[in-house]
Amino acid sequence: MNDGLNILAVCDPEGADSDGVFETFPALQTLWAFDPESNSFDSDSKLLPAPLRNSVELAPGAGMFTNATESFDWTSDPDASGGDPDDGGDPDDGGDPDPGPTPVDSLDDLRIVDLGAVPAGGGVVTVDVEAGEGSFLFYAQGPGIDDLITITDVTGPDGASITADLIPDGRQGSGDAAILVPLTDATPLTAGTYSVSVVSDVATTVGVILKQDTNGAAQVLNARFWVATSSDEVADAASRATTEQVFRERGDAIFGSANLQIGTIEFVDAPQNIIDQFADLPLPSTGNDTTQRALCDAMSQQFGQDHTLNFVLVDSVNDPESEGVTLGNAAGIPGATLIANSRTSCVVVTANAGGVTLAGNATTVWHEAGHLLGLNHTTESSGDFFDWVPDTFQCDLSNDADADGTVDQTECTDGGNFMFHDTDNTGMSEDQGNFLAGHILFQPAAAN
Known about the structure:
4-stranded antiparallel beta sheet
């Protein structure tokens, strides 16, 4: 269908529910759904087929239009949904897991602005914040995957820095760099012009994603797990349902104190070329994660533009210079999420590391998510580096009870925090929760 066409219309003239599958993933730009009640088209990001294959249900009398830069295939199958949605699922697997709270599933809470380019050497970019906007993620991208970029400072409309006191060195990244503000409730956004300083040896493209102030309302975070592993934990529908439930329970236990919850969780088989290239991921202890950035860059074409945190489940994440095994890693702190061709837009997690329980792996999932959303370790093992969050504990080497030169979760007050360097726990501070609530990937929960 649609041989070379850029505009596609799919309608349901018979008035019966239909279900379609996008068989190939093109560079889809926009998908509009037709609402027969209002006789109009509305942009609906939940229909955007971010996975390689995505079920799209059309209500009676409905249709849709899409704007794409490449042709693609569409097949319609009234029976594709697999039967009555109220039948409780396959009786052999006990039904579907709890789907979690319903997200609004649109980008209406965000304003995405392309800010142009910053020349080599760096410069200052202005961001105009409108009334009602409570946070923004600013990002800068270089032409190369290893281009070093630093966002050194953000100043408010009054000219005072809102970041220097807490992160004096700014935010640095390779290929991409990003910063989420405000860092704390002590410097809330106000309407006006903010200035962001960018330093790099190369010219960078810059932009900002601004988010409406939620005023403490309930929000959800959607998660998509791309399966690039042969692990039994995600081998079939039943094991994926079990894994989903454990991941959800652990995520809700961590984020719930901030009125944040896990929304939809989906597992999608990664393309075979991704599995072949990245299932065993080298990650040097030096932190030179070029291969992971290449993975995120390759996968960003599949992600789509939606409120979803993307994970890639792999067979292993190994330091090629030692025998060390890494359970997971975020590509950026924070990552440049929700934008195209981002090298820092995903988290990798070892699907079934030896000796790690499913619950332990769930803690790793949300710990690494915390990094991608902008949180550092509360305390590093060396006891001499701490995060910027005002209300988290700093555990220095004076707490090293066993005198092994490191501090662990049994020796530190912040050992119960989900962002401690080696924790299995679910604690989160108030300031951490307030910061995460401003992230662009958290979206309002739909009213029930």
